[in-house]
Amino acid sequence: MTNKEEKSTFAEVFKQWEQSIHEEPELRKDQVVEGKIVSVDNDYVYVAIEGLKQEGRIPRGDFDEAPERGNYVSAIVKRKESQDSGCILSKKEADQRKGWEIVKEAFKNGYQVTGRLVNEIKGKGYIVNVEGVELFLPASQLSYKFKEGETFKNKELEFKIIELNDRTRSGVVSRKKLLDEVNEEKWDALLLKLKVGDKVKAIVSKIASFGVFVK
């Protein structure tokens, strides 16, 4: 190769490299991006995507709380549109993806979780939102009596996750199991303090043919 050819090849490589550093990264479907909220209307929240000269829009319904300009959000690319109109993003799916990892960790380690009752399935139970993931709460596992006039909607309670399916991203929660474990821990602690002959105060909670329940 002559010196002239070497210089020509080097110039071409240098030009390609120079072009590449000025090119914007290609957005991919299902890619997670960060964005800063720049404007809001009745239908969409518009964000400036970090590292790109593009805007994306997120459906207003993806936000549980009123979005504010200047706040940063994570979202998933759903559909890329023209250079001018940017792309459609989903904050809801990004929250669910992140939430699913938190839910899996809680189930694996036996941690309790905080959930919000969002819907009732008559005669069967409730749908509970845990970290953006909707899980099922059987009516038999609620162990909570609503006060007169109190609505279940958006009621926050503590639960234990008792079933989880990674393939369908579904699961079952129980408040009863959590309370049973708490009561068992309290009972074990109480047994360590008590000895035969001790006098204790108790409230009769139920009377049965075989005995009396106290607490």
UniProtKB/TrEMBL annotation:
Instruction: Give the UniProt entry's GO cellular component terms.
Output: cytosolic small ribosomal subunit
Q: Which domain of life is it from?
A: Bacteria
- SMART domains linked: S1
Q: Which UniProt keywords apply?
A: Ribonucleoprotein, Ribosomal protein
User: What range(s) does the S1 motif domain occupy?
Assistant: 110-176
**A UniProt-annotated Pfam family:** S1
Which Gene3D superfamilies does this one have?
Nucleic acid-binding proteins
Family, similarity comment? Belongs to the bacterial ribosomal protein bS1 family.
For this entry, the protein name equals: S1 RNA binding domain protein
Organism, by scientific name, is Leptospira interrogans serovar Grippotyphosa str. LT2186
